[in-house]
Amino acid sequence: MAEGEERPPDRGAPLALSGPERGVLATLQRFPGESIPEEEVADRAGLPLDVVRGSLQRLRAKHLTLLEETTRDRTRLTRRGEEARSEGLPERRLIRAIAESPHKALDATEIDASGLDGEARSAAIGILRRRRLLEDGFPFRLKDGASETPEMPEERGLREIGDGVEDVDPDVVKLLVRRGLASVDHVSHKSWRPSEEGQRVPTSEDAADLLGALTPALLASDAWRTAAFRPYDVRAAVPYSGGARPHPYLDWLREFEEILIGLGFSQSEGPLLETEFWNADVLFMPQEHPARSIHDVLSVRGLHGRAPPSELLERVVAVHEGRPIPGETEPLGMGWRYPYDRAVAARPVLRSQTTAVSARFLAQHPTPPFRMYCVDRNFRYDPVDATHHIEFGQCEGVLGEESASLRHLIGIFRALAEAIGIREIRIRPSYFPFTEPSIEAYVRHPRLGWIEAMPGGMFRPEVLRPLGIEVPVAAWGIGITRLAMVSLGLSDIRELFQDDLARLTGQEG
Amino acid sequence: MPRATLSLRRIEALLPSRPGRARVEELLFVSKAQVEGGSGDELLVEGTADRLDLLTESGLGLYLQGATGSAVGLPPVERVGASTISIEVDASVGPIRPDLAAVEVRPPAGQTLESELLEEAIRFQELLHATLGLDRRLASLGIYPIERIRGPVRYALEPLDAVRFVPLDGDREIDATDFFGHHPMAARYGALGRRDDRCLVLRDAAGAVLSVPPILNSRGSGEARPGDGALLLESTGTRPSRVEDAVGLLSLVFIAHGWSVAEVPVAGPHHRSDGSGVVRPRSVQLSPATIARLAGAEIAPAEVTRLLEAARLGVHPLPHGWRVEVPPWRADILAPVDLVEELVLARGLRPEDGIVPPSATRGRRSPEAQFRAHVSDRLLGLGLIPLYTPVLVSERMTTLAGRAAAVTLANPVSDQFARMRDSLQLSLLGVLERNVRHGYPQRFSEVGPVLVVANGSESGADTRDHAGVLLAHDGAGFAEVAALADYLLRTFGTAGVREPAELPGTIPGRAAVLRLAGETVAEMGEIAPALLRELRVPVPAAWVEWDLSALRPLVERAR
Question: pLDDT by residue (tens digit) across B20-70?
Fold first, then answer.
C-alpha cells in the first residue's frame, strides 16, 4: 500500500495511545491537511525531538499519521574550505607572494616565509601550472603576461557557501568538492500530517479515561454507565481462526459416488483382507500370474484362511483347468491348462483389487438387471513416491443386464469423466485376465499428460458362469486415486493422505 | 507391462512402403501395443501380457501388414511335413521339468540365417523367458542348428559328472559340476534345472550336449550362427500350454520372413506328439449372435470377415457364422469372446460411441456407509478436523502404543507400513506426532477401517468400521472424551454404560469402555505420558474410539 492510501477496512484491534502519542497526534490535528516538519512538531508539542520521532513512527504503524519525506542536498565548507575562505586560496596566496616579492620571483627561503605549508604549496603550484600562470622551474615566477590578480571562481563559491547561499554554481561546487574544500550532505526532511482516521481519534485528556475491555467485573460495577469505551482499530490484524472442514479427498469421493448413485448404481462393500480365491482365483486369474507374486501382493503372518464353499470352488477349479463345469458337458474354453492348487485358494492376502468385491456381489446371485459400485482402498507392493502408494483407491462397478455391452462401459466412463470436469478422454484396448474385451480409458492431467485411469471390460464367461450369472456383465476398476489427483489438480499421491493440520484447516496453502 | 526396443527399419522392411514413426504410432493406438518412446530407428514399445507377438519386429510387422491392408488373412506358413529330428523325453525329467515342445524352421530356398534375424530371435527369446516363462520357471526356449545335430535328441536328467560341454559363452570344455558351481547363469537359474547331483540335459544321438535346460546352450551343437540353415526351436517347462505357446511365438519371427516349418515328433512316458499341434492353426467358431451379445451391436458379415482378416486370422464362412483359424502365436484367442474382442478393437473405440444406460431408479449407499456418514457429519459438526490416513501403520507406533495384536505383514515394503492397524488410535497418534509444530489445541478425528484378528473367519481377520477422536490441549482429559462418547450415542437416541478398563496407550485408571446391550461399542482414555514424551507432544491428550461395526446393528435393533 502506498503512503497516502487509506487502509482497506478488513481487520481490527484495540486502539491505545500513550501520553506522548496523544500529545503528538493532538498537535498534528491542529493543522489538518498540512505536513509539518517533525522538528516543528516537537517544538509545538513541547516534547523532545527523539520522543516525538518515536511517537510519530508508532502512530504511523497504527495508521494514524502519514509521512512525507523529502531529501535535499546541503553544501558546506570543510575545515580546509573554511581556512581557504578566511586566508585565501593557496594559489591566490602564492601569486600574491610572487607579486609582492622584490624580484617577482620566490626562492626557497621566500616560499617558506610566505606561510604556505607543504600541502598548500603543492596544491598552489600545481593549480597555477595547470592554468599556465606559473613558469616551469625554480625560482617560482609568473609567466610573462600573466595577471597578478586572476579571477578564481572558487573564491566566490567559498564566500557564498560560507554565507549560506543555497544556489551556488554547481560547477563551482564540484570544483570545491573535488579539492576537498566543500562537501555535499543529503539531508532528509520528514514532515507529518494526520491520516483521515488520525484526524478523528479523540486526543483530549479525557480520552485517557476511556474504558478498555468489558469484563464481568466492569459489567457488575456499573462504571460503564458513566464512561465511554475506547474505540478499537477494527481494521488491525487479528489472530487466525481456523476450523474443521470436510477432508478434500473424502469430499471429492462423496461427490463422485453421487454420480454413480444417480446412474442407478448401489454400493457394496468387502473386507480388506481377502483370500486368494476371492482376490484372484474366482476372477480367472491363473495362480501363477505375475500380479499374484510376493512382489505385487501383500500377505500376512500368522493367519489362516478358509476355502470357499466346495461347490463354488470346484466350478472355479474346472474353468482354470479347462474342464467342463460340474454338471455341464462342454468346457467354456481352454482354461489356463495347469493344475489348480486348492491350498492357494485359502491363503489370506491384502486385497489388491476391488474386483474381489464385485466377485462377492455376483456370488450372491443378484437378479438382473443389477448395478453395483464399490469405492474403497486396496493394497499393492509398491514403494511410496509421488505417483505410487502402497494403498490406493479404486472404484469398482458392474452392470449386469441382457443388453450390457462395451458401449455401455464406454458411456459410463465418459459420463463419469465429464461429471468431474474431465473433457478429454480416449480409449484403448487393454488386457485383464478376467475381462474380454478389455479397454482402458485415458484422461489428460494438466501436468502429467495422458494417464491411464479407467480400466474395464466385459467379464469373461469363465468368471460369470461359475458364479451362476447368465447375463453379460460390464465391469470396471477405476483408479479413483489417479482420477482424484487429476480432478483436484494434485501431482503427488501422498497429498491425498495429507495430515498437516495447518493445511487441512486452510491456514497454509 | 512388458516392453521391448524394436527397430523401425526392420518393421518397415516387412511392409511394401515405409509408413514412418508417426504413422506406426497412429496405427498402434488401436492395438494392445503402444510406442512409449525411442528416437531414430529405436521404437520403445509397451504391450500387454496377452499380445507378446507385438513385442518383436516380425510380429509387429505382420500386424501392420493387416492394419495397412498390404497383407490380410492368416500369414502363409509352408508346412513341409516331419522334421528330420525327433525328441525323446525321459521319465527322469517328470518331477522337475516334464514338458517339452519343439518345431523345426527352414529358410527359404537359397537363403540362410541372417545375423539380424538371429539377433531378433534371441532378443525375443529373452523377452519370452521373462514374461511367458515367468523368468524361465514355467517355460524356456532354445535355438539349435539342425545341421550340427544328429537325431533323435534326448531330454533327460543326468549325473553332473557325466555332462561335459563348452558353455555358449566359454571356450573350454567343463563338466556340469563346475558349471553349476561357478557359472553366473547357473547361479541364477540352476535350481530350475538341477535335482541333487543330476541336471537336465538335451543331448543328440552323437552324444553332444545341446544345452543344459533351462540355463544355457553349448557352443557348437547348441549355437545357432549366421549362415546356418534349418533351426530347431525347443521349449522345456512345467506347463504344457506355456511351452507350446513359447515355441509358437518364437516361430513367428521366422515365419514372418518366409521360413517354412517342419513338425518335430516328441515322445515321452506320459505323452506322444507328432508335433503338429505346435504349428498348426487352431480353429474357433464364431456366431453373429455372440458378436451382437458381447459387442452390443451387430456387425455386417462382410465387415466381420474384413476385420478378422485384417487381424491376420483365417476366416471361413459357415452357414451360421464363421470358422476362424488362429496362428500358434495368438495364445490370447481361446474362445469366441476373444474373437469378439478382435472385432471390437479393430473397429476402434471412440468415447462418442458410448451410451449411458438409462436407469429407472436411483441407487443408494450401503447401510454401513450411511452409518459412517452420519458419524462423520456429527464429528465435523463438533469442529473436529477429519483425517484420512493409511490403514497400514508402522512397527514403531504399534510397539509404542502397546498394540502387539495388530496384524503383521509378511512382505512389507518398509517398516513404516508393516502392520495393519487394529485401532484408529495408532493412526491418530501418528498424526499427533507429525503436528507437534502446529501448536495447540489440536482436535481431530477419523472414520475408517481397522483389521481385527478373528480366528475362524474367512481370512483370519475381520474388517471393522471405527471412528476415533484425539484431543490434545492443556486441559485434555478423560471427562472430555467420555462426554464425546456419550454424545455420539445420544445422536442415535441411545446411551451406554461406562466401565473401567486397561487399554493400550492409556494411563492406568483413566481408561474405560462403553457398553451397549452388553457389547463394547467404544473405548476411551487419557494417553500415557511416556507415550506423549516419545512423540514429543508437550500437552496432555485423550482419545475415544467407537466400533461402528458393533454399534450399527445395536442402534438399528433398538429403533
Answer: 999 999 888 888 898 988 889 999 999 988 899 999 999 999 999 999 999
A430 contact partners, CB below 8 Å, separation of at least 6: A438, A439, A440, A455, A457, B32, B48
Q: What is the spatial distance between Cα B522 and Cα B544, in angstroms, rounded to a whole number?
A: 7
Q: Report whether pLDDT(A295) > 80.
A: no
CB contact under 8 A, B430 and A499: yes
Domains A77-184 and A249-272+283-299+352-497 share a fold: no
List pLDDT tens digits, range B362-390: 999 999 999 999 999 999 999 999 999 99
Chain A residues 286-305 with a CB less than 8 Å from chain B = 288, 290, 294, 298-305
Domains of chain A, by residue range, sit at 77-184, 249-272+283-299+352-497
> Is CATH 3.30.930.10 correct for A249-272+283-299+352-497?
yes
Contact B211, B218 (CB under 8 A): yes
Closest C-alpha among B136, B183, B188 to residue B163 = B183
Interface of A with B in 321-350 (CB under 8 A): 332-334, 336-338, 348, 350
Alpha-carbon gap: B499 to the closest alpha carbon of chain A (Å): 30
Q: Is A140 on the interface with B (CB under 8 A)?
A: no
Chain-chain contact of B349 with A458 (C-beta, under 8 angstroms): no
Mutate to test the interface with B, among A252, A350, A414, A501 (most CBs of B within 10 A): A501
CA A238 to chain centre: 21
In the predicted structure, residue A8 carries a pLDDT above the cut 50: no
The answer to whether B141 and B125 are in contact (CB under 8 A) is yes
Closest CA to A428 of B535, B28, B556, B489: B28
For residues A387, B6, A432 and B30, what is the CA-based torsion angle, rounded to 10 degrees?
100
Q: For residue A74, what pLDDT is reported?
A: 87
pTM for the model stands at 0.72
Which pLDDT score is estimated for A15? 58
Do B463 and A273 make contact, defined as CB atoms within 8 angstroms? yes
Contact A244 B410 (CB under 8 A): no
Task: Name the residue facing A300 among B50, B360, B409 (closest C-beta).
Answer: B409
* CATH-assigned architecture of domain A77-184: Orthogonal Bundle (1.10)
Q: How confident is the model at residue A9, as a pLDDT? A: 38
Nearest CA to B212 among B228, B198, B225? B198
SS (H, E, C) B241-263: HHHHHHHHHHHHHHHCCCCEEEE
Instruction: Using 50 as the pLDDT threshold, list the residues of chain B that sit under it.
Output: none
Of A89-103, A245-259, A264-278, the poorest mean pLDDT is in A89-103
Q: What is the dihedral of CA A220, A221, A222, A226, to 10 degrees?
A: -150
Tell me: ipTM over 0.85: no
Nearest residue in B to A496, CA atom: B388
| Residue in chain B lying closest to A392 (CA) | B390
Instruction: Write the CB contacts of B467 (distance below 8 Å, at least 6 apart in sequence).
Output: B372, B375, B376, B379, B424, B445, B446, B447, B488, B545, B546, B548
Cα B310 from Cα B73, distance rounded (Å): 6
The alpha carbon torsion through B108, B111, B115, B117 (nearest 10 deg) reads: -10
- Rounded Cα–Cα distance for residues B105 and B122 (Å): 15
- Give every CB contact of residue B168 below 8 A, 6+ residues apart in sequence: B216, B217, B218, B219, B222, B223
pLDDT single digits (tens) B317-368? 999 999 999 999 998 898 888 899 888 888 877 888 888 888 888 999 999 9
3-state SS class at B539: coil
| pLDDT tens readout for residues A198-237 | 888 877 755 556 777 788 888 888 788 887 777 776 766 6
**Over pLDDT 90: what percentage of chain A?**
44
